[in-house]
Design goal:
This protein is an alpha/beta fold. The chain folds into two domains: 5-103 and 218-229, Rossmann fold (3-Layer(aba) Sandwich); 104-214, Rossmann fold. Helices cover 51% and strands 12% of the residues. The chain has helices spanning 12-30, 45-53, 57-73, 90-93, 104-115, 126-130, 133-140, 150-162, 171-186, 215-229, and strands at 5-9, 38-42, 78-80, 119-123, 144-146, 191-194, 212-214. The strands form two sheets. It has a four-stranded parallel sheet with strand order 5-4-6-7, with helices on both faces. Strands 2-1-3 form a three-stranded parallel sheet, with helices on both faces.
Length: 230
């Protein structure tokens, strides 16, 4: 028996990559065409952005709770959210959730420690880079981090919301990400957190100047391990 994974989604491309990773890598563990049961629910990104832009994390939490309750009724045994930004509302959700959760930034921090990294570059939406999600998780794991400067944060945010969430992955945007990552490497970073779940669709291990910590796939793999092994 395996556990039923519930995906609390937010943006489509990141959620799809997470779902696809569970299904494809599930077959590597469980046999041809096999994977744990998976259910996914999402409110629209527009609904989430209304609250995020207003700095209303309680409103974000209510959307997450709504998805959690629907997934619990569908039979999910535990939940994951393949969206780094809305983990800022995680503490408002976890204690009253009908099912336990895995936390994306904690999974990234765990992997970084296992790989022996010391200082991480953190990329994501402006809200993620300027928010507490990764600082809290990385400090708890005794890891240092850096984020890009204000101008770079704004440009990365624009690329995410104008291109990546719409499935547009442009060479000029990859070049920009590479430039930012390289500069953070010059500041002593020894790996880069791809902390928007769409970024791994643009920046890969082959194209990144620093070893990438792919938050989307790391969360999916953690969920797969939990579903299969526990």
């Amino acid at each position: 028996m395996t556990q039923h994974i519930g995906i609390v989604a937010c943006s489509a491309e990141g959620a799809a990559l997470c779902y696809r990773t569970i299904c494809l890598e599930g077959a590597e563990r469980m046999g041809r065409h096999n994977h744990p049961e998976v259910s996914l629910h999402t409110h629209s990104l527009a609904q989430y952005m209304k609250f995020i832009e207003a700095n209303d994390w309680a409103g974000v939490a209510e959307l997450m709770m709504s998805s959690a309750e629907k997934l619990a009724r569908a039979g999910a045994d535990f939940l994951i959210c393949p969206d780094n930004t809305i983990h800022q509302a995680f503490d408002l959700v976890e204690h009253r959730s009908p099912r336990p959760w895995l936390h994306i930034a904690r999974e990234v921090a765990k992997e970084a420690k296992q790989r022996g990294h010391k200082r991480l570059a953190v990329l994501g939406t402006r809200y993620l880079m300027e928010g507490p999600v990764y600082p809290d998780a990385l400090r708890a794991a005794d890891l240092d981090y850096r984020i890009p400067g204000a101008k770079e944060r704004e440009k990365i945010n624009q690329i995410i919301f104008d291109e990546l969430v719409h499935g547009e992955f442009l060479p000029r945007s990859l070049a920009y990400f590479r430039e930012v990552i390289r500069a953070l490497g010059d500041e002593g970073c020894d790996a880069v957190v791809l902390g928007c779940t769409e970024i791994p669709l643009l920046v890969t291990a082959e194209t990144s100047p620093l070893p990438p910590l792919d938050s989307t796939r790391l969360l999916a793999r953690a969920a797969l391990r939990k579903a299969v092994e526990e």
